[in-house]
């Protein structure tokens, strides 16, 4: 679903950058987003209604970068001189799922299909594919981690 939506929007050529207005997503490290987003939301008000349903999960603190991940999904970064949406990196999604899914399951919820990680770009493939992705500065890059050094991290180039 994610890749199909993105393709349709790029073909339509109606994407625009705008200042983030969704309260949950203000002050997360970037302030411009691209719409329509990958879910087909034309307006931030539409996306805001969906992303705010995850607010209790953010408040519980199951993953320190959950708010960043959710906002990068619903308010993708709009970067000058880059015509594509900058989506969160797959590694950020997988970490959010790993840390928050068990808590959701305790209350009878499954990880939402809308937050699927499979279609997101990988940190390690940014240079080879040209698809950049967003990750907090302390997100580990599995391709450069030394298994004996847990302090190795990948810094996202903004």
From TrEMBL:
Query: What GO biological process term is on the record, naming one?
Result: canonical Wnt signaling pathway
Q: What is its main location?
A: membrane
Q: Where in or outside the cell is it found?
A: Cell membrane
UniProt xrefs under PANTHER family? FRIZZLED, FRIZZLED-2
Membrane topology type, per the record? Answer: Multi-pass membrane protein
* Record's keyword annotation contains Chloroplast: no
> Residues of the signal sequence?
none
Which PROSITE patterns does the annotation name? Answer: FZ
Q: Which InterPro entries match?
A: Frizzled/SFRP (IPR015526), Frizzled_dom (IPR020067), Frizzled_dom_sf (IPR036790)
Q: Which family does it belong to?
A: Belongs to the G-protein coupled receptor Fz/Smo family.
Q: Which GO terms describe its molecular function?
A: Wnt receptor activity; Wnt-protein binding
Can you name this protein? FZ domain-containing protein
Keywords from UniProt, A to Z, are: Cell membrane, Developmental protein, Disulfide bond, Glycoprotein, Membrane, Receptor, Signal, Transmembrane, Transmembrane helix, Wnt signaling pathway
Q: List the disulfide bonds.
A: 17-78, 25-71, 62-100, 93-117
Which segments constitute the FZ domain? 12-136
State any GO CC term. plasma membrane
Q: Which Gene3D superfamilies match?
A: Frizzled cysteine-rich domain (1.10.2000.10)
Taxonomic superkingdom: Eukaryota
Tell me which SUPFAM superfamilies the record gives.
Frizzled cysteine-rich domain (SSF63501)
